[in-house]
Write a structure and sequence with these properties.
22 helices, alpha+beta, single chain, elongated, 11 strands
Length: 552
């Protein structure tokens, strides 16, 4: 298997050369000797980052995915991989133009009034061009890099081969690297499908168009132009603005008070993402500063919806309770919720060690004021404690942690006094209240009143039937007690042995009485038959007792 990995293609040889060049000693020994005697070791964080950049766009995406998994990698790796970006030159316009014409299948001159051949941004998957439609509307065209699909499929196959190679080690088996490789392959294929990204964008727009926590008019999700969108081409509304950390907040709203404007902005962002995670269960998983824009009209735009996280209602509820336990520094509750999230039996986890790990972690935050508390750092450390105790939490927990970390980093840059815990406390109170009384309290109250009315009408008749059965002795009680089957079988065995013992004794006595009567000596053979039967039954009884092992 190893020789095939090293020799089967030029791409694999290139991977080996890059690993050697960057000095990953453990993998060098594994690839050259076919085994390594010592424990598997990752390269230092900076070395791993350089290897992924040298390997190209697909592996940069792998690093970005790994940066969302604090349940797999230590904090220093997460920090190094979070800002991982490939230095990818733009594709020449000639190739991009050919791909656009293939996707649209209409003369570009009829569709666009202008189409800028210079990209406004270039990434590992696609590059973006600005254009004006024939009707005057401005659009951003996100164009997939030509030939990327073949490279991606080849590199996914190679990653699975590497995962299979490392999975023979203890660390590979503990972390389920084959499952991680499959997860990455599926996530990357989904990111290559721009039609899916358009669907995600539309869904986010619908979800965030109404809220009781913020003014939806303050938020902008770009409109999708479906007639121009395909798997390799995404056309969305062009939005004029600046990256959120580079925008000029003076002279817009609040009479030029930029500080008040920034505080309002971070409150809006917190509420927008809390709704996505804890209410909608469908959230933008990559809200880094380049994907958040402050528009000329004062709105906040959420861009690049290719990386999405999902949460089912059960996980949402557990996450909300986990956030509350972390705010309250409750180690015991954190350990219980982690086990529930992992979906394992508490008997398979050392709860004492898990709770002790959480207690040591949270104790460090006891004497800190809320303004000094980095909630995202605490969240990452909670996931790390779970990893150290072999708890495999859902992968969306890592995406959630990354989203919170990005959000908190942006918010603290804009407002140094920002406190995540204080921001979400009123939202959690409202959320718990909504879960208690429901979305429509009046309807819930009327439904409960109707149930009580039906119960009050049915109860007298049910009581009458019960009393009638008691007085006529037709009432039957069906009681099932577990654990009685074994006792019943034991008592049956004892009763059977006692009966056989009595039978043996009766046969012996009968035979003795017949043999002692000389006047009926003509039937002496009857006593012999009785003695023989008694002997057979007696021997069988002794054998069954010895075989059961319950002689004593």
């Amino acid at each position: 298997m190893l020789s095939n990995f090293v020799q089967s293609s030029a791409r694999q040889r290139e991977i080996v050369e890059i690993v050697f060049r960057n000095g990953w000693d453990y993998m060098r020994r594994l690839l050259t000797a076919g085994k390594a005697d010592d424990e598997p070791k990752l390269p230092p964080p900076a070395v791993l980052r350089n290897i992924l950049i040298d390997l190209g766009p697909v592996y940069v995406k792998l690093g970005q995915l790994l940066s969302t998994r604090p349940d797999i990698l230590p904090p220093e790796y997460i920090e190094e991989l979070t800002a991982l970006q490939a230095e990818v030159p733009p594709v020449p316009w000639d190739e991009i133009e050919i791909l656009i014409r293939q996707q649209i299948r209409q003369p570009l001159e009829e569709v666009f009034h202008t189409l800028n051949p210079q990209p406004v941004a270039a990434g590992s998957i696609a590059q973006t061009h600005r254009a004006t439609l024939a009707d005057g509307r401005e659009v951003a065209l996100k164009v997939q890099r030509p030939g990327l699909e073949e490279v991606v499929e080849q590199d996914i196959a190679l990653l699975k081969g590497l995962a299979e190679l490392v999975s023979i080690t203890d660390i590979g088996q503990a972390q389920d690297l084959m499952g991680l490789a499959d997860e990455f392959g599926n996530a990357l294929r989904a990111e290559l499908d721009f039609a899916k990204e358009a669907t995600y964008t539309d869904r986010l727009s619908r979800n965030l168009s109404k809220s009781r926590w913020y003014d939806p008019k303050k938020l902008k999700i770009p409109e999708v132009f479906w007639n121009l969108t395909t798997e390799k081409l995404l056309a969305i509304e062009w939005l004029d603005g600046d990256p959120i950390l580079l925008a000029d907040y003076n002279g817009r709203e609040h009479g030029g008070d930029s500080e008040a404007q920034k505080k309002e902005l971070v409150t809006l962002l917190t509420r927008v993402f809390f709704q996505q995670i804890c209410l909608d269960g469908f959230f933008h998983a990559d809200p880094h500063p380049g994907n958040l824009f402050y528009l000329k009209n004062g709105q906040v735009a959420l861009l690049d919806c290719g990386m999405i996280g999902r949460m089912d209602p059960r996980t949402q509820q557990l996450l909300i309770e986990m956030l509350l336990a972390m705010v309250n520094l409750d180690a015991q509750r954190c350990s219980q919720l982690s086990v529930e999230m992992a979906g394992v039996s508490s008997k398979r986890v050392n709860l004492a060690n898990l709770e002790s790990g959480y207690d040591r972690l949270l104790r460090r935050y006891y004497n800190l004021s809320l303004s000094e508390l980095s909630f995202s750092q605490m969240f990452y450390e909670v996931l790390q404690v779970s990893r150290e105790n072999n708890l495999r939490l859902p992968s969306n927990m890592g995406l959630c942690a990354k989203a919170i970390a990005n959000l908190e980093g942006i918010a603290r840059t804009l407002d140094p006094e920002y406190n995540f815990a204080e921001q979400i406390k009123p939202l959690m109170t409202d959320l718990f209240g909504r879960q208690l009384v429901g979305e429509a309290p009046l309807q819930g109250l009327l439904r409960t009143a109707l149930d009580l009315k039906n119960l009050s009408l049915q109860s007298p008749r049910q009581l009458e039937v019960f009393l009638d059965r008691v007085t006529t002795e037709t009432l039957q009680w069906n009681i099932a007690v577990s654990g009685l089957d074994g006792l019943r079988r034991t008592m049956d065995d004892a009763a059977n042995r006692l009966s056989f013992s009595i039978l043996v004794g009766s046969l012996i006595m009968g035979a003795a009485m017949i043999s002692s009567q000389t006047e009926i000596s003509q039937v002496y053979w009857v006593s012999d038959v009785l003695f023989a039967a008694a002997s057979i039954v007696g021997l069988w009884l002794i054998f069954s007792i010895l075989r059961s092992g319950r002689l004593r």
